[in-house]
């Protein structure tokens, strides 16, 4: 791989995670933040993540110091772009903001430098419209938390070149993630379309009074969810028999939720400021101890799968 110098724009959850992953893979990283405070927060988050992974035995202290030494904070786009082989933006989900950044990067960078966005849903074509080299603009959508979830969706715009897609996928695989290449863009990409379809049906089951939230979650955690970590929905259908799934579809599809707007249940929760762990209540009530326990459990399981992926 010819990429050695990475610029990551953004110091939040995704930005600092992408910077960490790139540095861990041996790349030189510039992490862009607009202020000393944002850069300090980003570096503190990286150090905290590394400390947790050290405690869990993933890294030694020497390896952590080596990773940190490869990351340098900068406060201007000019500094970030200087010498970069690959730039990935991970700022707020605002099209105008992203277009402004890409317009400036397009001027600062030579045509061979790939400009990627970590947007979770904005159109790569719309982002690329403000550039003179749309062939080098692509989406590289990491999933949260990026240190623990392998998936990165690679989404081309209308004018993105195959070379850009291939090089981006190569970089993703090099830093230890799993690239999934889309043939063309669509709203929500792959992962969010599947995730939201599942969430819509889960909320519908609760809304209809058929089961309580904890029972819906257990049905997924102890059933279908276990299988999905090994075989995706289409592979599962092949293994189960397409004739069987065709038969089930013939009577069940018509009874599934087909809402085209957020459900009344979800709207009610948001209206009541029951936003989940951030407010202390959503579908469940959350104490600080509950949140820490669930996050710890999630991290342990995700680390298990990361170890399995290496074998």
TrEMBL record:
UniProt cross-references to SUPFAM superfamilies, sorted A to Z: 6-phosphogluconate dehydrogenase C-terminal domain-like (SSF48179), NAD(P)-binding Rossmann-fold domains (SSF51735)
A UniProt-annotated Pfam family: 3HCDH_N
GO biological process per UniProt: butyrate metabolic process
Species assigned in the record: Clostridium cadaveris
Name of the protein described by the UniProt record: L-gulonate 3-dehydrogenase
Keywords of the record: Cytoplasm, NAD, Oxidoreductase, Phosphoprotein
Taxonomic lineage: Bacteria, Bacillati, Bacillota, Clostridia, Eubacteriales
Molecular-function annotations in GO: L-gulonate 3-dehydrogenase activity; NAD+ binding
Major location category of this protein: cytoplasm
The keyword Cytoplasm appears for this protein: yes
Domain 3-hydroxyacyl-CoA dehydrogenase NAD binding as annotated: residue spans: 5-185
Top-rank EC class of the record's enzyme: oxidoreductase
Marked site: Important for catalytic activity: 141
E.C. designation(s): 1.1.1.45
């Amino acid at each position: 791989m010819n990429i050695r110098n990475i610029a990551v724009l953004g110091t939040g959850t995704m930005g600092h995670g992408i910077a960490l992953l790139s540095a861990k893979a041996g790349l030189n990283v510039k992490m862009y933040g607009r202020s000393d405070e944002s850069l300090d927060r980003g570096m503190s988050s990286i150090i905290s993540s590394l400390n947790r992974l050290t405690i869990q035995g993933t890294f030694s202290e020497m390896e952590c110091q080596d990773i940190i030494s490869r990351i340098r904070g900068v406060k201007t786009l000019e500094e970030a772009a200087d010498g970069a082989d690959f730039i990935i933006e991970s700022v707020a989900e605002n099209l105008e903001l992203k277009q402004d950044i890409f317009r400036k990067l397009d001027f600062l960078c030579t045509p061979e430098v790939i400009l990627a966005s970590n947007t979770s849903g904005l159109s790569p074509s719309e982002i690329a419209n403000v550039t003179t080299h749309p062939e080098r603009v692509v989406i590289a959508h990491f999933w949260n938390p990026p240190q623990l979830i392998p998936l990165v969706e690679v989404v081309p715009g209308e004018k993105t070149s195959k070379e850009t897609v291939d090089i981006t996928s190569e970089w993703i695989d090099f830093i230890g993630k799993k690239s999934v290449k889309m043939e063309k863009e669509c709203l929500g990409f792959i992962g969010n379309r599947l995730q939201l379809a599942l969430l819509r049906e889960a909320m519908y089951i609760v809304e209809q009074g058929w089961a309580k939230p904890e029972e819906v979650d257990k049905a997924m955690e102890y059933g279908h969810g276990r299988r999905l970590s090994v075989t995706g929905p289409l592979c599962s259908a092949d293994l189960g028999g397409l004739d069987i799934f065709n038969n089930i579809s013939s009577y069940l599809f018509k009874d599934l939720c087909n809402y085209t707007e957020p459900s009344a249940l979800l709207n009610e929760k948001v209206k009541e400021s029951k936003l989940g762990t951030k407010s202390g209540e959503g579908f469940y009530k959350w104490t600080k101890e509950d949140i820490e326990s669930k996050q710890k459990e999630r991290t342990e399981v995700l680390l298990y799968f990361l170890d399995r992926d290496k074998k």
